[in-house]
Amino acid sequence: MKAIVKTRMAPGAELLDLEIPEPKADEVLVKVQATSICGTDVHIYNWDSAAQVYIRRVPQIQGHEFAGEVVEVGKKVKKFKVGDYVSAETHFFCGKCVQCKNGQKHICETEKGRIFGLSCDGCFAEYVVVPEKILWRNNPGLPPEIATLQEPLGNAVYCALGDYDKDLNGKAVLILGDGPIAMLASGVCKAEGACSVVVVGRHRRRLEISQEMGADIVINEREEDVVEYLSRENPRRGFDVVLEMAGSKTARELAIELVRDGGRISLFGIDTDPLTIENCGRYVRSAKKILPITGRLIWRSWNQAKKLLESGRLDITPVITHKFPLEEFEKGFKAMTERPKVSGKVILYP
Length: 350
What we know:
Number of strands: 16
Helix content: 25-40%
Mean pLDDT: 94
Shape: globular
CATH architecture of the largest domain: Alpha-Beta Complex
Radius of gyration: 20 Å
Distance between the termini: 9 Å
Structural class: alpha/beta
CATH topology of the largest domain: Quinone Oxidoreductase, Chain A, domain 1
CATH class of the largest domain: Alpha Beta
CATH superfamily of the largest domain: Medium-chain alcohol dehydrogenases, catalytic domain
């Protein structure tokens, strides 16, 4: 089979011919129909400082977002069969630790740090082996290019809905950031009934896609003073929900400033700067809630995404901006990294 392999701890990857892997007793073999490039994959491809946190060995097949058909099952597999149309969760979990028993499988204590496609070979290939435990059965009517995006869509769902708010109906939402997950979150928030969705970013095409996804107002921070613009155009006393998806100290500070008292901030963006609360007493009295977001709630976020897609209230096709055959993976990574940023999600077809 053909596979995109990280062969060196250095920038780049190679398209290699490898043997089709054999599933273990608790695994299935999947023929990949579509796979998509994540921002994490870009870090690994570029081999920047963030990548070195994820990849501990080479060679390794990249990729963790996919959709495909089961073509072989291990002897201990019970819930899936040949012919099933599947995708997968990426966080491994034991099901027995305190976190797993309390609805927090995504931060499993036993398996913490093990992620499909990062801690093991991934899905940028014609075939991939996947443990039964993390498999997700797709709706048969879901096109592969949409099915492969359920994993990142789960990020957006968890970020938008959080642990506190089951319903965004009638709420004002601010999204800081214009990356692919932020674009998806724009659609999720509108589909869940938000009365207003405002997106702040710095890339014109990505902001346009956020509008196509349902954002009511988009603000290019390179062209507008965000606080001044919002005080003029959106006179509400703060936002009910703020999704910090930019991953910067400035965005976090803006989130804390612009969320209303008693409102909720979802922190999804990642950077290495400290999280600082200037006046802890005043912050405590404000009752502003901060929720760190990592991964998805297994399997709650998946089921929420499924319902949104099947309801017809959420169409995520505008987020798909590029499609390439697997052999042209370098074009896919170039699309993800070129400036100004114009890409949403990039699909690769084996």
